[in-house]
Write the structure tokens for this entry.
Amino acid sequence: MDFGFTPEQEALRRDVQAFIAENLTPEVLAEMDGLSEGFGVRPGRARGGHVEKLFAKIGARGWLGISYPKEYGGRDGDRISQYIVEEEFARADIAVGLGGSGGPAILAAGTEEQKRHFVPKLISGEYSFALGFTEPHAGADLASLQCRAVRDGDEYVINGQKMYTSAAHVATHMYLMARTNPNVPKHRGISIFLFPMDTPGVTVRPLWTIQNDPRAPIGTTYGTPRTNETFFDDVRIPASALLGRENEGWKVGAMGLNLDRVGAARYLISVRRDEDIVNFTKSTRFDGYSPAQDPAIRDKIAELWIEAQVCRLMTMRSMSIVEHGGNFTYEGSAEKVWAPEHGVRTTEAIAQMLGPYGQLLNGSPAAVERGVFAHNLMGSFQSGINHGSVQVMHDQVARRGLDMPRS
Amino acid sequence: MDTTLTEEEAMIRQSARRFLEAECNTRLVREMEKDPKGYPPELWRKAAELGWQGLALPEAYGGSDMPLVYLGLVLEEVGRALAPLPLHSTVVAALTLAAEGTEAQRAAVLPRTAAGETVLTFACYEQDPRLTLSGVQARAVADGDSFVLNGIKRFVDNFAAADFCLVACRTADATPGSDGLSLLLVDTRSEGISDNPLVTLAKDRQSEVTFRNVRVPKTNLVGTLHQAAPAIERMLDRATALLCAQMLGAARKDMEMAVEWAKYRKAFGQPIGAFQSLQHMAADMLIWIDGGNLLTYEALWKMDQGLPAAVEVSQAKAFCNEKCEAVVRYGQIIHGGIGFMQEFDLQLWFRRVTSWTMRFGTAYEHRARIARALLDVPGRVVLGQPLPTAG
Ligand SMILES: Cc1cc2nc3c(=O)[nH]c(=O)nc-3n(C[C@H](O)[C@H](O)[C@H](O)COP(=O)(O)OP(=O)(O)OC[C@H]3O[C@@H](n4cnc5c(N)ncnc54)[C@H](O)[C@@H]3O)c2cc1C
């Protein structure tokens, strides 16, 4: 066991911190404000000059895709270094990792051509995916999905509907899970396809979330103002759009999800929140009242801090396993139970500390921290629903970690 | 950063597990609950042959100079087996002597400790249930070449078995720049000591010890006169973190028994372990124990590196107190009525873990210590980074 970082990794962290202090100018921040989707501003999503320039600089430092292979646009670096960079940028609400991007799955299951085509551009931000998993009648029980892909010569023809395709309105590509064989047990007839969003027959309709009005401020967990439903009407795509083998999409998708659950992704969305609460509490007074001196609040803050440490250490454990080239049995799922549940406890606790201020949203007079705590409260439980709900993750811990029987 | 065990760490744990599986069954555990000394001397000697007592002691005194993390791994196995050995109190006192004692004190006590020829303990608690040094009222007054010690210590582990006890006592009033506390190495057979055994949940050997005009040679002063608070705090931090390891080992075994039971026991036509509500309880047990493990080994690792670890120790203990208690409660619930029966072994784990959650600082105290570090020192806190320090 080794709970420390190497001198090189510590130096990298200081470099990134210095870079952020220097480059996160008020102009950049003002521009970022409208771009955040609740998981940090990503390369490729920039619409104005300042943020675009910022990402160019980050790329020039080699800080995008550190742990990806050089031949696909990465740096052949270690996972921990990549994590350090992700963590420091996450504090500034900038997303430099590829969590949720489809990148890990393509590297693991893609053809050489797919890897060369997609991975470098995912890293640079030129490409990004909308994830098309969920359907109106397939959420937690994702394998019951109905969206069809039928082989027709050198093509597949897609018909169906996807729900909550969050990035569909900004993404360049669709990462779609569809049924290729309806006549076998549900997990065995699913395939994954990668294709451009502007393929004829793809229609995106907005679904507005409760974070949209007013818009959640930057730094909000699940501040997503908008998600979408996406319709596929006789969408024809080349057979080469298939990722992995036909009917093995469940395995490929699960692998991608498992890789997404780790690392920074889960933990980092709560880092800001955990630190913000302590730093806010210790620096705030309301007239004569100082929450930091309130014994009940002190006890709660310490309890949440301990939980946050467990989130951090579980993430370190997952990354240690990845670094050793191992596979998770239950550890990724455990992280996905603990971190979201902790997130909920955190946001609900700060609400009880703030009392009526806890209700005030972005832009309201007298709002504290631009209403970020109230917006967090609206969003934090989402983290326990998507990417494998806390309930289903609990099942996995019990079955994989403890070998408990199925009912 | 690597939270996985190295080969050597895995080996230490594995060999400790094998040894205790062979040498310590629950019959022995039950027998020792009724034994006045509370441990079998043969097992103590065999543990010494494996080098446990001296594991983290300096080589010069017969130890192996291994990190505390290794000792944690061994204590985890001791907890798992509920091995009735006075190992925790012995190593905590020995490590303090090794760190703070004089050459003569170390030479007199440590080699015999490493050889398994002696048992040690330490005494801090008095009336105050908190693990606070302000609760130390026992007084030692200099008289010629001795101190004369008076006071009542409570919750002293293994006193009847111990040859020496490190006693935290007051030698002066606290003044700015001097805490007025001292640490004395007391021979447990000294005149004026009476031992009043406590009856505990764990059925382990804890005592209320009365010191009445006990003469302790001045050469038995450990560390600096009137300035022992930092040394005592370091001792208690080591004791606390190592107890977490022991508690987690026991809690994990309790969970394993509950899971086995859930696979075997049937209700409504299926194994109860197939019910989702029980699966989720079991999953939480695993998640909590893993979380406690990560917190505990980070604390031990930091101590090994010579880094400040007080907050990490408190994180581990506050978490383990509440989560390990919940784990063994879940263990009971999953077992239904049978877990409440004396002759069923599960209760042995339930009673011990429960008792250990109440030792060396309550969840409230440890969280208060964390809150002081988080909130009372100016500067921004950052997760995963050292907290701001005063000055
Ligand atoms: C902001 C946001 C962004 C999202 N982005 C995307 C995206 O980009 N792409 C995408 O494909 N999807 C996305 N999702 C969808 C998300 O993954 C689903 O919401 C999630 O899979 C749950 O599905 P559901 O909403 O249909 O709930 P349901 O599946 O209907 O679940 C409802 C409840 O039942 C519980 N439940 C289900 N099965 C079990 C069981 N076996 N045991 C116990 N409880 C159970 C669930 O845990 C949950 O509490 C997003 C969702 C949100 C809110």
Remarks:
- The mean pLDDT of chain B is 97.
- The pocket of flavin-adenine dinucleotide is lined by residues A 131-134, 139-141, 164-166, 224, 227, 382, 385-386, 389, 391-392; B 276 (CB under 6 Å).
